[in-house]
Structures are given as C-alpha cells and as structure tokens.
C-alpha cells in the first residue's frame, strides 16, 4: 500500500493529490490521513514541490466538499434526508447523520465549517448544514479552504519530517496502511450487509440563511 500510493503520487503528481483528496471528501475510500503524509514523503524526496502539494490537497478537499454543499442547498433538508434514507445502505451519510450535523451547525454556526474540516469523518458531513443554511459560497469556500489547508499542512509535515527514516518507516507504514484500508473496506461491506433502516429521523427545523 505504501509503495502503491507513493508510486501513484509520483506518476500523477499534483493532479493525483487533488483527485484523491476530492474523492476522499465525496466518498472516502482512502482517508486523507493516508494520502497527505505519503505526499509529504514524496515532497521530501524531491519529486514534488511542497507548495504545490499543499495547494493541490487543499483544492481537492474543497472541491470534494462542494457536491454535498450544493446538494443540500438545492434539494433542501427534507428532500436530502429522503434521499439519504432511500440510499443509506450505500451512502456514507444517513438521515440521522444529517440531523447530527444540523444540530452542531445550529449550536456553533460557521465555526463548524472551519474547525470541522480538521476532524476526521466530520469533514464531509459539515458541508451539508452549511448548504442547508444557505451559507454564502464565498464564506463556505473561505472557511473550508483555511481548515483544509491547516489539516493538509499537518499531515504533509508529518510525512516530510519522517523522510530521513523512509526505509525504516515504510516497513511499518506499509502493513499498517494495508490494515487500515482493509478494515475500512470490511466495515463498509459489513455495513451494507447488516444495514437496518433506523427509526424515522426528526423533522427538519426552519433554517435561517447564513451569510
């Protein structure tokens, strides 16, 4: 897994970083906790530029957040929750998840967009209440970009600083990364097979426009 991802990033360059981070935010097959540290390894070896990787990672993360933001903004709460309920077996977001994200947004407002980008699993969900509250695109992009840049920077720095121990670290990172990916795949398949529709989600509250 270690050689697979770093090799892919070496060949695909900044577009590969952008694409993986965008995909991770839409439907997370490989978490950013694996993507960006590996990108940091590649930067430290001189195959990619640090600024380019940070820009590509941040842009990909924000681009991946936009589909959920627009889906929420266009479809609205009730329609989006009905969509989630119909396809919750296959999606990574359920109607109950939407309720939780809305509750967090009501309590903390726009700060949830900024700091939510720093929290694993929340990064995707936080786009939904922002869209439902009709937060302006400019504000959404600003807060998402700041949070995504900070998160990407931390992960890239971790990979960059370990580069001098590349051979030693790869011996441990490779089996661990395979185990993480395998566990995620197993969890998803288990979720699909054992999924049972939850109790009916709460009705959507009236949303005030967030500017």
From TrEMBL:
<feature type="transmembrane region" description="Helical">
    <location>
        <begin position="140"/>
        <end position="160"/>
    </location>
</feature>
<feature type="transmembrane region" description="Helical">
    <location>
        <begin position="172"/>
        <end position="190"/>
    </location>
</feature>
<protein>
    <submittedName>
        <fullName>DedA family protein</fullName>
    </submittedName>
</protein>
<keyword id="KW-1003">Cell membrane</keyword>
<keyword id="KW-1133">Transmembrane helix</keyword>
<feature type="transmembrane region" description="Helical">
    <location>
        <begin position="12"/>
        <end position="30"/>
    </location>
</feature>
<dbReference type="InterPro" id="IPR051311">
    <property type="entry name" value="DedA_domain"/>
</dbReference>
<dbReference type="InterPro" id="IPR032816">
    <property type="entry name" value="VTT_dom"/>
</dbReference>
<dbReference type="Pfam" id="PF09335">
    <property type="entry name" value="VTT_dom"/>
</dbReference>
<feature type="domain" description="VTT">
    <location>
        <begin position="30"/>
        <end position="159"/>
    </location>
</feature>
<keyword id="KW-0812">Transmembrane</keyword>
<keyword id="KW-0472">Membrane</keyword>
<feature type="transmembrane region" description="Helical">
    <location>
        <begin position="50"/>
        <end position="72"/>
    </location>
</feature>
């Amino acid at each position: 897994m270690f050689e697979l991802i770093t090799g892919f990033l070496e060949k695909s360059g900044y577009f590969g970083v952008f694409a993986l981070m965008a995909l991770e935010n839409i439907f997370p097959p490989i978490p950013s906790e694996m993507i960006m540290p590996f990108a940091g390894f590649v930067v430290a070896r001189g195959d990619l530029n640090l600024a380019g990787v940070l820009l590509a990672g941040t842009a990909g993360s924000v681009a991946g957040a936009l589909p959920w933001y627009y889906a929420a903004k266009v479809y609205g709460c009730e329609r989006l929750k009905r969509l989630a309920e119909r396809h919750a077996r296959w999606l990574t977001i359920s109607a109950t998840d939407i309720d939780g994200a809305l509750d967090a947004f009501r309590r903390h407002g726009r700060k949830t967009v900024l700091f939510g980008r720093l929290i694993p699993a929340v990064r995707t969900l936080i786009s939904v209440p922002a869209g439902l509250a009709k937060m302006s695109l400019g504000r959404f992009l600003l807060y998402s970009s700041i949070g995504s840049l900070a998160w990407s920077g931390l992960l890239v720095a971790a990979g960059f600083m370990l580069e001098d121990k590349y051979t030693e670290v790869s011996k441990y990172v490779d089996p661990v990364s395979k185990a993480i990916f395998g566990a995620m795949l197993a969890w998803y398949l288990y979720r699909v097979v054992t999924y049972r529709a939850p109790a009916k989600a709460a009705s959507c509250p009236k949303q005030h426009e967030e500017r």
